[in-house]
Structures are given as C-alpha cells and as structure tokens.
UniProtKB/TrEMBL annotation:
Pfam families: DUF2383
The organism's taxonomic lineage, starting at the top: Bacteria, Pseudomonadati, Pseudomonadota, Gammaproteobacteria, Pseudomonadales
InterPro entries linked to this entry: CHP02284, DUF2383, Ferritin-like, Ferritin-like_SF, UCP029477
Basic and acidic residues bias locations: 129-142
Coiled coil location: none
Listed name of the protein: DUF2383 domain-containing protein
Domain DUF2383 per the UniProt entry, residue ranges: 7-117
Length: 151
C-alpha cells in the first residue's frame, strides 16, 4: 500500500532540505577552493542541487502540500563545521573534499531510506533519478579527494 499524501509530502520536504543542504554545501566548498576547475565543478553541483530541490518542491505542490524552502539544522551545523575545519587546515583541498564527501554520504543515506518506502510510481522515479545524481556526485568527490590525498 502506498504511503498517504501527508507522509509522502513530509518525506519529500525532508529531501528538499537535503537538496538545499547540498546546494549550500557545494557553494561554500566552491568559495573555499582555489583550483578554478574544482570551483567550477562545485558551482555546477550547487546549481544541480538547487534544481533537484525545485523539482521536489513542484512535486510537493502537485500533491497539495506546502514545500520546504530552507536547509536543515543538521546541514547548517555541518557547514559550520566545514568552515571551521577549513580555517584550521588552511582551506586544504583534501579537507574540503573530505567534508563534501561526508555531506554526500548523508544525502545518499536520505535518498536510500526514502526509496525503501512504498512510494507512488511518479515520486519513486524522480527520487531514483535524483539518487543517481547524488551517487555520481559522491563518487566524483571521492575520486577528487583521493587524487588530492595522493598529491
């Protein structure tokens, strides 16, 4: 049996917060990075997270709900930690990439938990597509971090 609308809207609103966390996290990492290629990549990832949040907000509206518009408290704390750690490590590329990977780990966990629910098929297909994007981000950040670590 599919989740009721209220539960689906709540789940989607949590994922909107997750996407907003990613948007802000990637933007802040881009601001801290000196490498112009990484800066551009992270700026692009920030925009993709914003687009994902917007897509989820539209889905919540289509279900008759009021979409979330802000990031989560946990995301705000994580970004504060990233900023502090960046200052302490002199904004090292590896430290920034480590924290970005950690943020993507959290996002992946949220998407995987959401996809374990009995969702309407239209919601499931959007979440699966977005989860694949989060996985791609995670894998790319991890590869970049490993390269930074090896240098």
């Amino acid at each position: 049996m599919n989740m009721d609308n209220k539960d689906t809207i709540s789940l989607l609103n949590n994922l909107i917060e997750t996407s907003k966390d990613g948007q802000k996290g990637f933007r802040e990492c881009a601001d801290d990075l000196k490498n112009p290629e990484l800066k551009g990549l992270f700026t692009q990832r920030s925009a993709e997270c914003a687009a994902a949040a917007s897509e989820l907000q539209q889905l919540v509206r289509s279900l008759g709900g009021d979409p979330e518009t802000s990031s989560s408290a946990a995301g705000t704390l994580h970004r504060g930690w990233v900023n502090l750690k960046s200052v302490l490590t002199g904004h090292s590329e590896e430290a920034i990439l480590n924290e970005c990977e950690r943020g993507e780990d959290v996002a992946l966990k949220h998407y995987k938990e959401a996809l374990e629910k009995d969702l309407p098929s239209n919601v499931r297909s959007i979440l699966e597509k977005q989860r694949q994007g989060v996985q791609r981000n995670h894998d790319q950040v991890k590869a970049l971090r490993n390269m930074a670590r090896a240098s």
